[in-house]
Write a structure and sequence with these properties.
The chain has about 140 residues and is an alpha/beta fold. The chain has a single domain (about 5-135), classed as Rossmann fold, CATH 3.40.50. It has helices spanning about 20-35, 45-50, 50-60, 75-80, 90-95, 110-135, and strands at about 5-10, 40, 60-65, 85-90. Strands 2-1-3-4 form a 4-stranded parallel sheet, with helices on both faces. Helix 4 links the parallel strand 3 and strand 4. The chain starts with 6 loop residues before the first strand and ends with a helix. Bound molecules: iron/sulfur cluster. Iron/sulfur cluster binds near residues 14, 17, 67, 71 and 73.
Amino acid sequence: MLKDGKVFVIPCSGIGKALGTVGRAAMYEVVEKLRPNEATTVCLPLLTIRDEAVLKLARNNSCISVDGCPFQCARKNIESSKGKLVASFVVTDVLRENRGLKPEGVTELGPKGLKLASILAEKIAGRIDEINNNR
Ligand code: SF4
C-alpha cells in the first residue's frame, strides 16, 4: 500500500470543538506542506471500527496522535488498536504555552487559531524528523 513507510499523523474527530479544528489544521499543514514525503494521515474512525487494512498500517508504521483536548481520543484509539504510537500532542498544551492564540471558532479559526495550528504543525514536523533520524 502506498502509505506504508510514512509516519501517520492521526488527529481526533473533535466535532464542535475549535481545538479539534486546530489539531486537524495542524495535521494538514504537516502532511500537505511541511513533510508531504514523510507523513500521511488516516481517518481515526477506521481504527475505531477496527478496519483490518488500517489496523495493519497503524501497527506497522509510526503513529503520532493529535488531540484537541485532554480526553485524547486519538491517542487512546491508537493505543487500544495496538498501533505503534511514538508521540502524542494535545492542542490544549500548545494553547497553554501560547495563551494569546485562542481560536475564534470551530469553522473559522481566525489568524490566532491558524497561528496556533502552525506552531503545533512545526512541533509535529520536528518530531517526525527525530523519528526518521533514529531509524
Ligand atoms: S480529544 Fe477532545 S476534542 Fe478530540 S474528539 Fe476527543 S473529546 Fe473531542
